Structure formats: structure tokens, C-alpha cells
Amino acid sequence: MDLPQIRNFLSLAATLNFTEAAHQVGISQPSLTRSIKRLEEDLGGALVYRDGRDTRLTPLGRDVQIEFMGILKLEARVRELAETRVHGERETLTIGVASTLSPVAISKYLNHVIEQLPSLTLTLCPITNATGVEAVLTGELDGCFISGGSDSHPKLSIVELFSEKLVLCCSETHRFAALDEVSAIDLPEELYVDRLACEFRSEAIEWLMDNDVLMNPRIRSGREDLIQQFVAGGEAVCLLPEFSTVASGLVRKRVTELDLCRQIRFVAVTSAGYAMALRQMVLMAERFDWSHTLNALKL
Known about the structure:
The protein is an alpha/beta fold. The chain folds into 3 domains: 3-65, Arc Repressor Mutant, subunit A (Orthogonal Bundle), CATH 1.10.10; 69-159 and 264-295, D-Maltodextrin-Binding Protein, domain 2, CATH 3.40.190.10; 164-262, 3-Layer(aba) Sandwich (D-Maltodextrin-Binding Protein, domain 2), CATH 3.40.190. The chain is built from 10 helices and 12 strands. Strands 3, 4, 5, 6, 7, 8, 9, 10, 11 and 12 form a 10-stranded mixed β-sheet that branches. Strands 1-2 form a two-stranded antiparallel sheet. A hairpin with a 2-residue loop joins strand 1 (48-51) and strand 2.
């Protein structure tokens, strides 16, 4: 097995067409067919189903596609590392950020990273907590900021950054704004906005039901910015992580006996062969003064 074979297979997996895949990699169709056949012999199983003009990946083909993508990503990282060391060129890292995380805290850390690593360029991508770790393991992302459970993995470096509680948000003119704390019994009367991307969603619904609070959401959305603007500009309420508010005019209030908390983490693969800048980002995340950054955001 070699890198050209891997590239040939990935091209076929993407196009599911031998003629088009051969054109993409710059070889003849018979050469591509022989390359795939040798790869199948090497791996001991079929990678594609061939049924006339219909070409589909086998279960083995789908599995190795993910692993091969990681191999090519690693090769690109090794070449980038070599070019950086030899020629002093810039490094580029692709970092995923879950859409529900506090932009204030994360941006302050990223500003620190950029200041400390002048040759580094960052590409930030929106992700969900469900897809972030897998994207790191397959090489699609170099690292990611996520919340909640990321089980230990021998390839992963996981840095615990900070924790935050779920709170109620309303506008400055809402009746809750004058209260020190909101009682669960007051919630059923409110226009409630359901955050579909909320990691606490199932736990929050369970807590409301346990407290005999029946909410009837009139608005449901996965757009965090839209939800916050809607709540800040009207009479609706929503439940938000305490450090994630960005819309002007939002007021945060504790809810009596509501004690849901999430842990924010930075996850990356920092084994040999990965960019030095990524390992430095992990170290900086471990040493960054997150508590000082978040003090200004606390209730």
C-alpha cells in the first residue's frame, strides 16, 4: 500500500466513477482499476461493489475511506511542518468551535494564541458537539472547542477549560429583570424559546417536567444569534449557558434549584507528526487564565 493507491481510492470513493476518478488523479482507467485491485488484495477484502455502471463502497470501503483521509491529512501536516522548519513559512490550523460556546472567552484565548505565534494562521469552523471529536480523529480538523463529554482516547489531548451553568435569559424590560432569582412556578406563563442546539436540552426538559412546569415553545431554532436577539428585543425567555450571551440587552437570572452545568474543553491530536503550533495551542490552553477572562461575565 502506498500514497498514490490511497489517493486513487479516495478519488474513486468521492466520485464512484472509475472514468472520472482516473481523470482526477491523472492516470488511465485501466491503471486505476489495477491500483484498486492491488489495494483490495493487500487489505484482503473488496472495497467497492461493481455492478455494471453502478459503483458503491463496501462496508470495508467506507471504513478505510475515513482512515485514508486521516493519512493524507497527516501527510499534509508533515509536509507543512517540514516547509515551516526549512523555509520559515506560515502554519495553518483548522479549528472547530461549537456554535453554543462563549465567543468572548474563546476569542480572548485565540487572540493570545495569535499574539504568541506570529507565523500561525487559524481557520475557524462551526461544528456541533456530536461531530467535533470525530472530525479531529479523521483529520478534518486539527482541534476543536466543545462542551460536554469527550471520552478519553489514546490519540487525543483533552484540556478542561472552564465550566458554566444554565441560566434564564430575558430582556431588560421583562418582569424577571427586577428579580434576584426566578422561581420555576413562574415559568409556564412565559413565551419560551426552545434552543434546538442546546446541550442541556433533554436535561432541561426533564427538570421542567420534574417541577411540573409545562412550557409551550412558540419559537424553536438552532440559530443561537437569532434566539438571543429575539429574546433581548421582546418578552420571550430562554435558557442559556451563563457565559454564552452576546446580544445587547440580555439579562441573566438564576432559576431556583436549577443546577445544570457543562464543561468546556479543547480537544486535539498532538502526537508526533502533527503541527508544532497545535501542540503549542494545547499548552497555552492549559496555562491560560480562564477564570480571569470569565470574571467579567459572571452573574
